[in-house]
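Per reviewer request, we include the raw input and output of the structure prediction for the construct analysed in the revised manuscript.
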Amino acid sequence: MSKAKRILFLCLAIMLIATVAVTACAPAKKWGTADNPIVITFVPSGDTGKITKAGTQIADWLSQKTGLSFKIEVGTSFGASIEAMGAQKAQVGFLNTFSVLLAEAKYQVVPAIAVVRNYATPAGFPDPDAALKDTMQTFYKAEFLTKATSGINTLADLKGKTFCFVDPNSTSGYIVPNIILKAAGIDPLKDFKAVVNAGGHDKVAIAVYKGDCDAGVTFVDTRTDASYKLYDTYPDIGTVLKVFALSDRIPNDGVQYIKQLDASTQKTITDALMEMSTDATAKQFLKDLYNISGYQRIDATFYDAFAAVLKAAGVDPATLVK
């Protein structure tokens, strides 16, 4: 090799080393800037138009309060929101309970806030927690709905019927009801005439109301929920649909962060959301989103007891995400 070529190769090597060194030493791109906003993902548990509107209001309020830039996305499915966080395409999640468990197991997301709601109990059906109605709680329940005239009064009556679930990753609209059904000797894959994943709790109630499904399962109480307001479109939904079965307690949904988002930014957002839940104007955005009444700070163990219950019933999130 000629001297000139050796010098050329040496120069190229020095340039390459310098480039690598600069890249390695360059600071990581910070989330929350105008050109790299923090993305909040919302699960599509209801009308996506309403969720988008409320989510945008929440993002705008957070931006004004924290000085950080935010943008939102509404997942095309519950799983899509989980994967958005796993790919770091979303840094903040408003995930439902079971999605939190999956995202913790698969991507080590950090639960920071649990939703507090006025506890709802279904009219016309016995609930052992009925005395807690309208008190602020961090748990809720699932309800099985059918038409009052359907002749369906027990879980056993569901055999041979068309049944509506919400989404395979919905806690009260799929996971817990499947456990309840199997405990009652009903295999949804074998004993139902047809199974429909409606895509939202409101969509399940509407499908049962219209007769597209003989029965379905949602959270308590979709018929009177203030964010869906199904009673505006279907004024008689509270009497046309009845509850015929109820689940045990389920911990509420909340807010989570990806582990790569620095702790200082997480705290800033958490503090702002806690303030938001008490702000006279902004708390309505949370109400419109998922009927959120308030927030409670939690640690990473908040969902552990419920995860243990699911695991004992044969549903282990850690194995489902492998």
